[in-house]
Amino acid sequence: MKSEIVYRSMKVISNILFVILGIVLVLCLYSFVSIKVLSNKYVNFFSYTFFQIGSNSMAPAITTNDLIIVKLSDENIKVGDIITYKDGDTLITHRVQQVTQTGYVTKGDANMEQDKVILKEQVVGKVVKILPQFGVWFKVLSTPKIIAMICVTLFLFSIAFAYTGKKHLPDNADFAIYYSGIQMKNGGKDD
């Protein structure tokens, strides 16, 4: 009875880990195709994207290695909102200081001077969530070698937890080695 509970628990944990791994792999593949193949500057997940912050221009609100989630839209942006915009090939995340008819005047919280006027066409979107220091985890988990290691580890866990229960031995055998452990005849204990 106890081994059956352990077996079912490990099977559930293994299945949950495989589902999570599958979701991560699909997201990584979608991101790779979107950025490398389609040459997009960022990935669009149902009108949201995320960026890792590379400078402290918005400190203390947002610091290096924070991950931000951005709603892809230039609507409903007001003074005090944090936006991400394109400046040439660079993506910049700063706070809106002033709204004009043509765009926005922004400034990094840690910067002394305001930025030049940002046109509405340059705006990628508004920051809706800041995840402190998640950029480090994102970088680690999006590395192909790490993903491969996680896949191998989950595969090995699934093999280790694939306990199949007790086997009945043939009449002429005293013990047998099975995938699930050693089985012994006459009340011997299995592993």
Description:
The protein is α+β, with helices and mostly antiparallel strands and 191 residues long. It has 3 helices and 9 strands, in the order αβββββββααββ. Helix 1 packs antiparallel against helix 3 (144-160). Strands 1-2-7-3-4-5-6 form a 7-stranded antiparallel sheet. Strands 8-9 form a two-stranded antiparallel sheet.
What's the assembly state of these chains? single chain
What is the CATH homology-level superfamily of the largest domain?
Umud Fragment, subunit A
Q: DSSP strand (E) fraction?
A: 25-35%
Following the backbone from N to C, one meets helices and strands in this order, namely HEEEEEEEHHEE
DSSP helix count? Answer: 3
**Overall pLDDT score:** 81
Instruction: Give the overall shape, derived from the CA principal axes.
Output: elongated
CATH topology of the largest domain: Umud Fragment, subunit A
Overall number of domains:
2
Give the N-terminus to C-terminus distance in angstroms.
Answer: 15 Å
Q: Would you identify the regions where 5 or more consecutive residues have pLDDT less than 50?
A: none
Radius of gyration: 27 Å
Instruction: Give the class from helix and strand content and strand pairing.
Output: alpha+beta
CATH architecture label name of the largest domain: Ribbon
Largest sheet: 7 strands, antiparallel
CATH first level of the largest domain: Mainly Beta
Residues in helix, %: 25-40%
Number of strands: 9
Biggest β-sheet: strands ordered side by side in the sheet: 1-2-7-3-4-5-6
